Amino acid sequence: MAHRCLHLVLISTPIGALGSGRGGGVELTLRSLVQGLLSRGHRLTVIAGAGSTLPFSDSRLELLEVDGCDQPSWQHSDPTADITIPANGMLPRLLERALTHARQVGADALLNFGYDWLPLWMTPYLSIPLFHLISMGRESAVMGEGIESLGRWDQRRLAFHTARQAADFALPAPPRVVGNGFDLRQYTFRPTADGSLGWAGRIAPEKGLEDAAAAAAALGEHLLVWGLKEDAAYAEAVEASVPEGTIEWRGFVPTAELQRQLGGCRALINTPKWNEAYGNVVVEALACGVPVVAYDRGGPGELIQSGTTGWLVPPDDVAGLTAALNRLNLIKRQACRDWVETHATCQVFAERVEAWILAGLVSGDVSISTSL
Ligand code: UDP
Questions:
Q1: DSSP structural state of residue 87
Q2: Which of 105, 123, 299, 303 fits 278 for a cystine, CB–CB 3.0-4.6 Å?
Q3: What is the DSSP string of 264-290?
Q4: Measured from the CB, is residue 109 less than 6 Å from ligand 1?
Q5: CATH code of the region 7-181+346-361
Q6: With left for phi above 0 and alpha for psi between -120 and 50, is residue 117 left, alpha or beta?
């Protein structure tokens, strides 16, 4: 149990409903954190898009839903794009509901999961502390400015999933890195598997599926692919780039099914083309005992212990991927699970987030007159 029980208002992503998959890894992050923080005695209100679901209920957990149009995703915008908020936008509605509710119940703090400029910008002007778990790297100039500007005002309000993600931003102090967390009861460890190669994630260019498909094709193997086809034209182009039948589309499946199918794989291939903030699917595979062969780029490059839980290869080196896939016999599946149990459970994640928020709630000498 925590020393001090907090009432926290968690603001979900303004893209899709929780459970839809449209929010990407943020959905799992939020669910894991809810679980970990509840187990540490905190009271939570989640503000999320209409139709959201949480996979558990608790007397100290409340879900409030908000209707509205999705924000455009920054990872699919031009890096120099201006800020856009659509009419009937979900983002301002989420913030309005969160602030109103936080004031009504006397919440201790708000925790924002959305990657957007508005909540960053408004933070210094609020009487209630607003914290931000940043879910991506520097996807645009305006977002970079927003994060760096807030960091100059009071960097304690910012946390990142990995140091590599945080390195995208010019911050006055070393970043607060909180990793991510997973409910290991949901991931069955499979000590042996001689099955297929797998790949999981949103089917979108920044995820680099084409390289994993090329590596599987070079080995004459199938590649099982799980995830939402965010970009249908891209998915078709990837399929056309490899011999027919190389890719076996498995669709977007809930966590229980994903881990069941993924756990039978010989390896997960992870080939990000961007500075992936963390890489949930990497850790989900490791939790099942599945080694990961990945590019040494972004979060996966920080999470995978090359030679112990998988292999890291130079970014964009497809021949390096195939060579590494031939060295899987050197990786012990138990070591993969062990790493997750030590570094990435809901509990350790919640402890890190709790420590971050408690440190940020101690009054500092920040003042908006000397900032922004
Ligand atoms: N995912 C899922 N079902 C699928 C494929 C993916 O639930 O069929 C989830 C996966 O568990 C992970 C998320 O989608 O939590 C993808 O997160 P990741 O951090 O890998 O990438 P992001 O989409 O956030 O860029």
A1: T
A2: 299
A3: T-SEEEE--SS--S--HHHHHHHHTT-
A4: no
A5: 3.40.50.2000
A6: alpha
The response to whether residue 91 sits with its C-beta less than 6 Å from ligand 1 reads: no
- Ligand 1 atom nearest the C-alpha of 276 is 25
Strands (E), the chain: 7-11, 43-49, 61-66, 109-112, 130-134, 158-160, 197-200, 223-226, 247-251, 267-270, 292-295, 310-313
Overall CATH class of domain 184-343: alpha beta
Residue 131 in contact with ligand 1 by CB distance below 6 A: no
Return the best residue to mutate from 22, 184, 202, 288 for the ligand 1 pocket (most ligand atoms within 8 A of CB). 202
pLDDT digits (tens, 9 = 90+) for 202-258: 999 999 999 999 999 999 999 999 999 999 999 999 999 999 999 999 999 999 999
Residues paired with residue 248 on neighbouring β-strands, in sequence order = 224
pLDDT tens, position by position, 90-132: 999 999 999 999 999 999 999 999 999 999 999 999 999 999 9
Cβ(280) – ligand 1 distance below 6 Å: yes
Structural domain spans, the chain? 7-181+346-361, 184-343
- The SS3 of residue 159 is strand
- Cβ–ligand 1 distance for 49 under 6 Å, the answer no
Choosing from 280, 290, 295 the residue with most ligand 1 atoms within 8 A of its CB, the one to mutate for a pocket test is 280
